[in-house]
Amino acid sequence: MIQHANSFIYIMANRCLILCHHPSERSMMRNGDGSLFRTEKAKGRKAFKLFAFSMLCCIMMTWVYRGKQLAESDGSRWLTALLLGLLASEIWFAFYWLVTQTVRWNPVHRYPSKEKLYQRSQLPKVDMFVCTADPIAEPPALVVSTVLSLMAYNYPAEKLSLYLSDDGGSILTFYALWEASLFAKHWIPFCKNFNVELRSPAVFFSKLTDPLKEWYHVKNLYEEMVSRIDDVVELGRIPEKLKEEDGFSRWHSGMTSRNHEPILKILLDGRDPASLDMDGNRLPTLVYMAREKRPEYHHNFKAGAMNALIRVSSVISNAPFILNVDCDMYSNNSDSIFDSLCFFLDEEKGGNIAFVQYPQCFDNLTKNDLYAGSLNVVSGSELPGFDGWGGPPYIGTGCFHRREALCGRIYGRDYKENWNKGTLAVRENASILEQRATEIATCTYEHNTLWGKQMGLKYGCAVEDVVSGLAIHCKGWRSVYYNPQKKAFLGTSPTTLRDSLTQHKRWAEGQLQIVFSKNCSFIAGHNRMKLGHQMAYGIYNFWPLNSLPTLYYIIVHPLCLLNGVSLFPKISSPWVLPFAYVFIAKNAYSLAESLMCGDTVLGWWNSQRMWLMKRIGSYFLAIVNNIATALGFSRLGFAITSKATDDQEVSKRYEKEMMEFGSSSPFFTIIGAVAMLNLICFVYGMKRAVVNGKTETLMVQILLTGVVVLLNIPVYEGLFLRKDKGRLSLSTTLASLGFAMSACLLTVSKGTAI
Ligand SMILES: O=c1ccn([C@@H]2O[C@H](COP(=O)(O)OP(=O)(O)O[C@H]3O[C@H](CO)[C@@H](O)[C@H](O)[C@H]3O)[C@@H](O)[C@H]2O)c(=O)[nH]1
Ligand SMILES: [Mn+2]
Questions:
Q1: Residue 511 lies in a domain
Q2: Distances from the Cα of 455 to the Cα of 7, 12, 458, 467, angstroms
Q3: 465 noted as active-site residue
Q4: How confident is the model at residue 203 (pLDDT cuts 50, 70, 90)?
Q5: Could you say which of 48, 217, 227, 247 is the most buried, measured as most Cβ atoms within 10 Å of its Cβ?
């Protein structure tokens, strides 16, 4: 019944889909000679499970100690409340630790054999979606380099269509894409003739030190194009002579990025036999889309853009597979389409795969990854673990989707993909297609449909990717994670502390929304996903909730030290052993894992600092913001991550791995206050402990607070020592000191009372 209802919904809402069942579909399936990919289980799982078990035992022993401590406490209300809070935090940490163990339980690695696909005569069409939203934060020259890297994939060009969604509705971005459509005629044959591996022209030419003579020509063409684009962006308008040209004439005065009609332009029409590159070979299709925006209709950020792209592409090319990347994520591996198709086209195991997710990798990280932007542990350890349970989450970029699954189809065993979908697209004139596609990129088209609910990406969540992938998993599909040696996609990671914390705040807001909604993996996935898979989602869904126990721990601890209140066993007592084991073993494991995933030792240390800052800064403010949104005081937003900085000073400090604070922000006030609190308590607490002869009972707290102080060294430098513009502002310094001192003074009187 559900199945029927769903196909009905599916067909209704996809009015424009051209469904065809071609006889050659079966012959193509027969061509396959065996499996197209293999799966290997990770090694060393027995040792890992033993280790996890030892951790669990020690964690339980620490609880026994807390129980004993509570029973033996002198009945003071303050102390009991303190200890209960501590126990609650520790129970949460243990629970979260348990959740993170699920993905380490049985990770798998996948290896496609694309050589087998090279021989196939019939290959499916592939559509590629790139989203951009702001010509300032996302420079058009960077966007077109991404676009060109994708258009130059090692794949029959006439089967590829690239769609750029421009949520900025900017003529500057359109101009850049128009330039790219001309340059593509040189770039694509150049890549193919010289077997260029780096197919993003920006990256290729920046790394090229000594070009061959014939390469100069293309390099010059590229550089001229970029300088024209940059000039246009700087001036904020296009050359006069282009204004009346087709496409450009659709912009008129009075249009803003938030208020304009839909604009759709097919810049290169792959169906047209006359659309050829300089070598006379066919070109891919290239389409610009700026969906309609009106102030009175909510546009649902990237999810809205993606859904408009799904519909628009279904009219123009309707490929069965869709690659989605962010505008800064260029293709770094020209074979990714073949690799991904190995999973989908595998006769035996490919039928239930909804999407193939690649890791998010970055090309602008420094050696020791100051802001922990590499996500190395996520890519190297956690996502393979998800795959063992039923597949990685959709992380918004670097992902190949099966169109049907993305459009909301429920998986059933009788389901068979139509590989030839889109190949029989009606031979309509491009302007008629443009007209039809424009009609479905309007604000009102989705009203009273299931778009954003059951179809396409889901609306209303700041991590539209994760919640949409989860919905696909709940519909019976699996996904596959592929992390090739040669990275498939590379993007830009935030280069200032504020950008990094803001990005994590947005992610945390989204994850929190998922936890407290019916989309929570434990509710939505109940009976539909394996328990391990539900728990794996918990790793990210529970991120924000970690902030409260962490804040409790990091504030209460030093204050108790200052007041001489002992929370842990004496350093000479055997009860200290389980605590020490949990702390040391957990960190040793984390360090080893981090190193295996490609971090440096200092990189791991930096990631520990970021972990702390994210928890007390991003996650905490995400909780505050979600509460404010729930109460109607604030609206969900999407702060776009900046992909370029003009400030040479900031870039230099980033290269030198100096933490960039800059102008004040609530993040920095919290971080500064916590850092100061720990420093003051560490110094005075230790002094008091020595004077009162209580070092033995307070040793654990001295050590813990000491670790926090060490982690915060860059914060103290930013507060007191640095002179450059990246230091913490004076107002932040004063506020941090003020908060920390008043917390200390307030508790000193209470503390003596305990
Ligand atoms: O209204 C909007 C806002 C953003 N975007 C695009 O969405 C992408 C991601 O935005 P970015 O600012 O780069 O955010 P990140 O935090 O780097 O993105 C990660 O997290 C997002 C969810 O929060 C996912 O959508 C992304 O795919 C994922 O890479 C970019 O291409 C934007 O152009 C839009 O198209 N419309
Ligand atoms: Mn991004």
A1: no
A2: 11, 11, 7, 12
A3: yes
A4: very high
A5: 247
- Name the nearest CA neighbour of 494 among 389, 341, 377, 651: 651
Same domain, 299 and 353: yes
Q: Is 638 in the pocket of ligand 1 (CB under 6 A)?
A: yes
Task: Report whether residue 132 contacts ligand 1, using a CB cutoff of 6 Å.
Answer: yes
Report which bound ligand comes closest to the CA of 396: 1
Count up the domains in the chain and report the number: 2
Residues 473, 592 within the same domain: no
Assign residue 148 the CATH number of its domain: 3.90.550.10
Q: Is 468 left (phi over 0), alpha (psi -120 to 50) or beta?
A: alpha
Q: Is 269 a catalytic residue?
A: no
Structural domain range at position 451? 2-31+113-360+395-493
Q: 91 and 148, same structural domain?
A: no
Residue 515 lies in a domain: no
Decide: 437 and 390 in contact? Cβ < 8 Å. Answer: no
For ligand 1, the distance from its centroid to the CA atom of residue 679, given in whole angstroms, is 38
Domain end call among 493, 512, 540: 493
- Looking at 444, 471, 493, the residue that finishes a domain is 493
**How far is the centre of ligand 2, averaged over its atoms, from the C-alpha of 310 (Å)?**
20
Closest CA to 686 of 564, 570, 555, 554: 564
pLDDT tens digit string along 631-646?
Answer: 999 888 899 998 888 8
Q: Give me the residue label for tokens 């690695």.
A: 109
Domain-embedded: residue 384: no
Q: From CA 59, how far away is CA 578, in angstroms rounded?
A: 7
Q: Is residue 705 part of a domain?
A: yes
Of 37, 108, 39, 119, nearest to 345 by C-alpha is 37
* CB burial readout 584-617, b (16+ within 10 A) else e: eeeeeebbebbeebebeeebbbbbbbbebbbbbb
Q: Which residues 6+ apart lie within 8 Å of 374 measured at CB?
A: 361, 362, 365, 493, 598, 599, 603
Residue 753 is predicted with a pLDDT of 40
Ligand 2 midpoint to CA 744 (Å): 40
Strand partners of residue 38: 111
Which residue has the least CA distance to atom 2 on ligand 1? 301
Report the pLDDT value the prediction gives residue 492, as an integer from 0 to 100.
96
- Residue 536 and residue 412 share a domain: no
499 lines ligand 1 (CB under 6 A): no
Tens-digit pLDDT profile for residues 282-329: 999 999 999 999 999 999 999 999 999 999 999 999 999 999 999 999
Q: Do 593 and 682 fall within a single domain?
A: yes
